[in-house]
Amino acid sequence: KRYETNKYHVPPAATAVATILDRGSTSCEFMRCTVNQVPAYPSTANTAHIPVAVICQPFAELTAFEEPVPAIDFGESGPLRCPRCKAYVNPHFTWVSQGKEANCNFCGHRFEVPGEYFCAIDDKGRRRDQKDRPELLGGTVDYIAPSDYSDTLPGVPTIAFVIEATRQSVSSGVLPQVLWTLRGLLNFMEQPASRIAIITFDHALHFYSFNPGLESSRWVTMCDIDDPFVPCSPSALCIDALDEGFRAQVEGLFGDLTDLFGETTSEQACGGAALKAATELVGAGGGGHVIMFHASLPN
User: Fold this and answer.
1) What is the pTM of this model?
2) What is the pLDDT of residues 47-94, one digit of tens each?
3) Contact between 66 and 23 (Cβ < 8 Å)
4) Maximum distance among all alpha carbons in the chain?
C-alpha cells in the first residue's frame, strides 16, 4: 500500500509493509511519534500519563519503490537556516516581499533571504524554483556539511562491542554465543568499516588494548563505575580487525574470553557505566556505533 506524507493523518503501523512517498513531511520510517495526536496543553499531557517522544531512525532502509534521500551541497556557506531558532529551510517556510524575505514555520521569525538563495515567487507565494530544490519539496534531505561544521575531520567510524560477562551471561550461553558470532563475522567485514573495540563488563569494566608485534591483547580493568573513564588511548583500543598486525590478537581474544570468564561468580552488571565509557571511547575515536549485549538488567 502507498502512503503520501501530506495526506495521511495516522501513519501506518510500524509492522506494516508499505511504500511511503515523501510529499513535504518526513516519512514515518525516519521519524515516528509515540502518539498520533499531541496534547495542546501541558496539563493534558500530565493527566494522560502517556510518554510523548519521537523515535528517530535517520538511516532507515528504503524499499525499491521509494525515492532515495537527496544529498545537497551548498558549499562553505551551508544550507539556509532561520537566524533565530536555527531551523533548516523546509517546504513549510513561507516567502514574502517578492521572495526577498522568509517566514520560519517553527518560530515565526521573518528574516531576509541571502542573495544567493533569492528567487521570485508566483501569485500564490510559492518560489518559482521550488521544483528544482529538493529541500523545498521533501521532508527528508541530507546536507553535505561545510568544513566549519566540526573542529575535526571525519574519520573511520568505530564499532564498539560491549558484552556482559556475568555468571548469568556465561551460564545462559549469551557470552560464548556472542563471541562465536563476532569471530565468524570478521570474515565478512570490509575495510575501512572494520575498526572495532571490545569491552566486557560485570562488576567492573574490562578493556582490551592491542599493540602490533604482541601475540595477545592486554587486559585493562577499570573499577570506577561511578565515574567511568577510558583507561587507554583510543588508538590502542580501537583497531582495524582486518589488519594483519591485529587479526591474530582479535581472534585469540574472542577464543580466550569464554575461558577467562568461564568460572566467574560475579552477579553484578554495571551496564550503565559500560555504555557511558563506550560512548566516550567511540566519540574520542571520531564517532561510530555502540552495540551492547545484555543477559540481565544493569544493577
Assistant:
1) 0.64
2) 888 888 899 998 888 888 899 999 999 988 899 999 999 999 999 999
3) no
4) 77
List pLDDT tens digits, range 102-143. 999 999 999 999 999 999 999 999 999 999 999 999 999 999
At 274, list the grid cell: 559500560
| Residue 176 main-chain phi, psi, to 5 deg | -65, -35
